[in-house]
């Protein structure tokens, strides 16, 4: 158990390097990993379960007492940033509907579970972050297909019903199950089972990234000007998500802890969920913009962490 705890802490501190490394492994061993793509939804469901064990229904109740930051964050996550991605993709890459679809898909998926780690480290509002992760996760089966149909449905066929069913089984059901178990245990599972499963959740994340990366191996092995341009556009849009969340928190005149939380809520995306959807319902071209985000999402998270510390301190003085 001590080894697993050390492993978990080791991975958490090096997420900025772990996910790109898993992407590289997926590309290098694409032929072998492509044969196990079928396990990804099951591994992802387990990862969602692990990530939701720290939440209880009471967390949602407290956040709903002051719902404005939550509503604004969801608005940014599912409308503002996807709209920005759709406009940028349509202007920069006309005639490439699959690239635009991948860009939009990357930014309509729910907030990343790993954002809670960054918020915890930099002393943001953990209850707010866990609540938005949970609510966004529960809404994903409905919001993701709807958003894709709205933004790119006229150019790319979207199997809305099948996508909703898979997101329910892969995301919503494991999250509700984990929450219910934690609620009925009086929160003891957060202290007992959650730490034990945390290392396996990280392993699951690494498996999902590596296996899904096998589908984009041909593109990464043969990078060209077009793919570099898509990568650059994704980097700028991803960085904008953090900045928009930060700006919204300032406009709402929130304190430091919510500024941190809203920055990560609006900036980080569940790339693994996007990759699973892309692999299941779209051609391989859609996967590239989604998976390329693994190269810089954690790096951007670390960059914004340093900016937050520079402007607002570490937050230790308030504890």
Sum this structure up briefly.
The protein has 319 residues and is mostly helical. It has helices at residues 2-13, 15-28, 30-33, 40-52, 57-64, 68-92, 97-108, 115-121, 126-152, 160-184, 188-191, 193-213, 217-221, 225-251, 256-267, 271-281, 284-291, 297-312. Helix 7 (97-108) crosses helix 17.
Structural class: mainly alpha
Report the mean per-residue pLDDT as an integer: 83
Beta strand %: under 5%
Order of helical and strand elements: HHHHHHHHHHHHHHHHHH
How far apart are the termini?
30 Å
What is the CATH topology assignment?
Na+/H+ antiporter like fold
Total separate domains: 1
CATH class: Mainly Alpha
Pfam families: SBF (PF01758)
Subcellular location: Membrane
Protein name: Sodium bile acid symporter family protein
Organism: Caproiciproducens galactitolivorans
Q: Which tags fit this structure?
A:
319 residues, mainly alpha, 79% helix, 0% strand, globular, membrane, Bilac:Na_transpt
Outline the structure in words:
The model has no long low-confidence stretch (mean pLDDT 83). Helix 2 (15-28) crosses helix 12. The longest helix has 27 residues, at 126-152. The protein has a single domain (17-318), classed as Up-down Bundle (Na+/H+ antiporter like fold). The protein has helices spanning 2-13, 15-28, 30-33, 40-52, 57-64, 68-92, 97-108, 115-121, 126-152, 160-184, 188-191, 193-213, 217-221, 225-251, 256-267, 271-281, 284-291, 297-312. The protein has 18 helices and no strands. By secondary structure, the protein is an all-alpha fold. Keywords: Membrane, Transmembrane, Transmembrane helix. It is found in: Membrane. InterPro entries: BilAc:Na_symport/Acr3, Bilac:Na_transpt, Na+/solute_symporter_sf. The chain crosses the membrane at residues 70-93, 99-121, 128-147, 167-185, 226-252, 264-282.
